[in-house]
Structures are given as structure tokens and as C-alpha cells.
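Because showing beats explaining, we think one record worth quoting, sequence and C-alpha cells together, and here it is:
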Amino acid sequence: MVKNILRFIHREITGLHQAAYLLGVFAFLSQVLALFRDRLFAYSFGASHSLDLYYVSFRIPDFIFASVASVVSISVVIPFLVERLEKGEAEGKKFIDAVFSAFFIFIVVVSGVAFFLIPYFIHIFFPSFHGQDVITLVSMTRIVLLSPIFLGISNFFASITQVHKRFFLYALSPIFYNIGIILGVLVLYPIFGLVGLAYGVVFGAFLHMAIQIPFLVEHKLFPRLSLRVHFQSIKEVALLSIPRTLTASSNEIAEFFLISLASFMSAGSVSIFNFSFNLQSVPLSIIGVSYSLAAFPALTRSFASGNQSEFLDQMITSAKHIIFWSVPVAVLFIVIRAQIVRVILGTGHFDWNDTRLTAASLALFAFSTISQSLMLLFVRSYYARGKTIKPLIINFLSAGAVVLSAYFLSQYFLTESLLRHFVEVFLRVDGLSGTSVLVLPLAFSIGITINMIIHWIDFSFDFPAFTKPVFQTLFQSLSASIMMGAVSYIFLGIFSNIFSLNTLLGVFLQGFLAGIIGIVVCVLILKLLGSVELEEVWSTFHKKFWKTKDIVSEEIPL
């Protein structure tokens, strides 16, 4: 039984859609756990000052993860690993040992230095916290500092497993990560208080890493820590990874600034921002991340072999399917946002005011769902071609747009009643306190949209044939989605007179049935418009993409 399970988990997945849908399914399962995790937080704390402390404790470790752990991110290591393994397994293993040793020492040293500087960082970046809050925040942050070490190692392991097309292992990691956090809420928090939540995060990060170890050990690919420095391998990775690390850091800097700004707003603003950000991350993880990850190895191989036509075809197919899925989901999130938030988070200490603010914030995030997903694909397309400077420059411009937009919008929101009144009425939060937090997702969406547009224009200069077929899919998906949104909105009103909206079941049925009817309309319109993506999706599922060939040989195919 156990052997069969391990064979199922370790088997090879081939094909873009098979890999993308596999990653999408497991991303969905992971997001279900993440939503259950957030529901536990909402039930236990609501949008409160205590939960603000928990979310703030992530900021410095997350920045370390983005700025240090991304040195050995999947997009960095895979091209080098593919090249080394093509020369032989011995050469590949030598590369793995060298890069792992250098990375492990580096991230441990950085985390160790950060451990002692945490109090100063808290004082500089989050001065709104005082007294016991600072003591608690320092303790939690120091504990969470272990997570970027485990997650960084896990990402390095994932580069190896993905090169060997073991997407199951990578897909399982986030599920175990969320299990660890949930155990922190249910088991460790009652024992240790808020610090117990930090222990849960570290345990989840450890599980994220540990799930990939059996495959590496079985195939003799587990890295060995060595003090012998192979400067050539490290130099090659460092030269390519530094711009990519800075690229990832730019996005983290923008989010860091938004959280810092939220900490100056009313209590619970940090929680509102994070709850809505996590909700909008569900379609991003299922669609954008899955397709960009699944496409990256194929893009790398196509470009490395000089097959420009195949490279462009992969990009067009990936972009079209990202748009095909993202546009309807974004529209649904905007239309039934209140029902989504109330069903998932509306429990315990999470009251109706928290629901309305989180729903409004979710709607603003949803406007950039498509841009976020496409941005991931564009960035990986540049990395597959060995280009790192352009995405670095574009991402820093985007981060700057987010920061400047957030700062000036927050000032304007407080001083000019016209903007505040428009936003509050448009998003149906008029009369609530704490609405200033809404400028943060608005600024985020503005910056990300600018980022995507610049990436698209620049990519189109290199590949002029990219835009036309993708625009066709965008037109079809947008047309069908607008009709879907209108139909869903109408049925929300109809079902509000049928179901009791004072119960969880009533709210769920209202949103679920209105969404299902809208989706049916969307599918019918896409069918009438002759959507190629709709046919491809049906064909992929019809062939049962999950039935793949088991690997029984000890030889690892590349």
C-alpha cells in the first residue's frame, strides 16, 4: 500500500496541460487548507490587533526568503541543472552539492544576523507598536526566521524534482505547509499563546521541505554539505541569480511597505489586507503559478535548443489558457465577493463590518488577478532565455508605482472627501470606519497592471506574433465573463428573496447557485464564439490527464 502510494507520488508527469492541471488541482487543495486556516484565524481573532501582530511577524522573514532564498529558486537553478545533468549524473550531483553548500551557509548566516537585529527593524519599520506588543512581535519574528531556511532548501529540492518531472512532490509541499500552520492554531496556540502560531509556521515550513527528501535519497540526489568551494558553479548561479533575487525583492519591498502603512491605520487593517490578499491568491496559485511553473522547463529546453517557434507556441498557449481561466474567475470574485468572504471567514470574532471591508479589498485585488498571472509567465519567459535585467527594471518600476500610489492615495483619501466617498459608495462600505485600508489593494493593482503591460509590450517587440492570438482569447473570455457577471448579479438578487441570508447555508447557496448559473452562461457563450481553449480543456480532461505512465526504471529520464 505504502509502496503504491510512493510510486504514484514519484511518477513522471509529461505535457504542459497535464502538469499545469496537476499543479492546479493540488494548488486548489492547498488553497482549501489555506482558507480553512484563515477561517480559524477569523474565528479566533477576527480582524484584530492580535492578528495584526501575527501577520507583521512574517514581514522580515518573508523579505529574507525573497531576497536570499530566491538565489536558488526554481527559475534560477533549473537551466543550470538541466545543462549539468545532460553531461552526466555525476556532473549534476557535483553541481547540486556545491550550490546547496554555499546557499545553506549563506542563508543561515543572514538569518543569524537578522535574529539579533530584529528589535531595531521593528522599531524602524513598525514604530506604531509599543510595549508588550514589541516584545511579542520580536519573539514571534525570531521564531519565524527558521521558515525561510526550510523553505529555501525546499525550493532548491524542488528544482531537482521538477527537472525530473516529479510535479506531485512540488504540488504536495504547500499542502503540508498549511497543515503545519493549522496545527499551530489548533494545538500550539492554546499552549503557548501567539508565539505558538509562529511555531506552527516553522513546523509547516519543515514539512514543506521534508516531503521531497525521500525521492532525493532514493535517487541518490540528496545534496551533501561540503566546505570545499566550487567557485565556478557558485559564480555562474550567483551572476544569474542576483538580478532575479533583486526582482523578487522588489515585489517583497512593495508588500513590506503596504503592511507597514497598514500598521499605522486602524486596528485590524493589517488583517483585512492579508485576508483579502490570501483570498485573491487562490486563483493566482491555481492558474498563474501552475501554468508558469509547468511551462518553465519546456520554455527553457525550447530556447536552449534554438527552437524559437516552439518557444513562442508554448508562450502563446500558456498565456491564452491563463486568460481563459483568470478572466471569468476575476469577474466572479468581484460580483460575489461578499458571499465568498462571508462563507469562508464569517465566523466567530469576524463580524459583518470585517466582512464588508475584506470583500471590498478583495474586489480591488481581483482587478489585477489576470495581470499577476501573466506577469509570472512573462518573467519566467525571460529567465528561460537567460535575460534578467529587463524583468528586474520592470519589477522595480512596478514596485515604485505601488509604493508611490499607496502613499499618495492614502494621503489623498484622508484629506479629500470626494475620493473617499466615491470608493466607499462604489464598494458599498459607506458608513464604516477603517476604509482607508482600501487604498492599499488599489495601489497594488495599479502597480501590478503597469508591470504586466510593460512586460507584454516588451515581449511583443521580441515576438511580434504573440499578441494577436492572445488578444483573440482575451476578447472571447472577457465578452463571456461580462455576460456571466451580469447574469450572476441578477440571480444574486433573485436568490436573496429565496434563501435566508442570516445563515451560512443561505449565503453559500445564494453565491454558489448564482455563480454556477453565470458559469453555465459563460461556457455557452465561449462555445458560440468557438473558443479553442474550451475545446482543449475538454480534450485534456476527457483523456484523463492524471493517468500517466509509471516510472519503473532506476534511470532518470531528462
Observations:
- Residues 49-171+209-252 form one domain.
